[in-house]
Amino acid sequence: MNNNSLFRKYRFKFYLNASHYIFIDGVKGETHPHTWEFVVDILMTSDSFVQFNQYEKDIEVYFEKFQNKVINDFSPFDVTIPTLENMSEHFIFEIRDIVQSNGGRLYRFEASETPTRSYILSFENDDELMESIRKERADRMVEIIDHVIDRIME
């Protein structure tokens, strides 16, 4: 099996204990708590060693500002109803930036507010992501070839 054909991923789970309220038919519902679960799949595009705990730390810091608070008190949820779907569609881009700043690629984001139902967002059909993976693999292959040639020339 060709090592370059492997996809390497890390999966992290985060739990957010917070409250929210939603509007149904223009009527504000009760503020109620949830323990939301967020699953983050990170695609590694390099064979290089990665300190994966940095992803955990940075994403935990991001979610910490919401812990034990009312989600509606935070932008954009002060004007956008914080449903699981709306929260996920906001969080995915914030988390993507965190992951990319640490050298990974966010591949998939899953959110649940109950154990039996999840909302899943994915970049798997993102042409830009796939092209960046191909480029990084090609660059890595050039590095390997250069290293082998250097060793032969020694």
Short description:
The chain is α+β, with helices and mostly antiparallel strands. Helices cover 37% and strands 30% of the residues.
Q: How far apart are the first and last residues' alpha carbons, in Å?
A: 29 Å
DSSP strand content: 25-35%
Within the largest sheet, what's the order of strands? 1-4-5-6
The portion of residues assigned to helices is 25-40%
Say how many strands there are.
6
The description of the largest β-sheet is:
4 strands, antiparallel
Please state the overall shape, judged from the principal axes of the Cα atoms: elongated
Instruction: Provide the gyration radius in Å.
Output: 20 Å
Alpha plus pi helix count: 3
Structural class: alpha+beta
Uncertain runs:
none
H and E string: EEEEHHEEH
What's the pLDDT, averaged over the residues?
A: 85
Top keywords for this entry?
elongated, alpha+beta, four-stranded antiparallel beta sheet
Topology readout:
Layout: E1 8-20, E2 23-24, E3 27-28, E4 32-44, H1 53-64, H2 84-101, E5 105-114, E6 117-122, H3 127-153
Antiparallel strand pairs: 1-4, 2-3, 4-5, 5-6
Would you give an account of this structure?
With 154 residues, the protein is of the alpha+beta class. It is 37% helix and 30% strand. The longest helix has 27 residues, at 127-153. The relative contact order is 0.16.
